[in-house]
Amino acid sequence: MAKAYFCVLLKDTVNNAVIDLDNLPAGTSSDEVEHFAPQGVDIGLWLKSDLNRAVRVADNIRNGMFDAESCYLISKLASLYENMPPASEQKDLFIAVRSEQTDIVRTSPEVAEETWRKVSNIGRTPA
Fold first, then answer.
1. Which of 15, 17, 108, 122 has the maximal Cβ count within 10 Å?
2. How do the pLDDT tens digits run along the chain, 127 residues long?
3. What is the 3 state secondary structure string of 35-94?
4. Judging by beta carbons within 10 Å of its beta carbon (0-12, 13-18, 19+), is residue 36 exposed, middle or buried?
């Protein structure tokens, strides 16, 4: 069960979402066939070019509201994942978006989730 752990890091907040790449919502697909490297670059540029849009998309995905922009990102990430070389074991994606760059990493599910949780809690006071 592949997932994409997605964070948008702003000065004072972190917005996040988890995308289940095996159970895509209606209006999305993983059909785009392209080499994965340019796909990753295109996704990174799209996300960092408009951080307000990236925040909105993260919030919409987290809340189960799949508008055109959210479906666009989900489809792009699902296609990217499908076009990556096969891995010998389960891998997930971790995506971190900041104003200066976007990082997309394929790693073990445990590392992706742990990194996502740690990044998501930046600046939050423990209860």
1. 17
2. 799 999 999 988 899 999 999 999 988 888 888 888 889 999 999 999 999 999 999 999 999 999 999 999 999 999 999 999 888 899 999 999 998 899 999 999 999 999 999 998 876 655 5
3. CHHHHHHHHHHHHHCCHHHHHHHHHHHHCCCCCHHHHHHHHHHHHHHHHCCCCCCCCEEE
4. middle
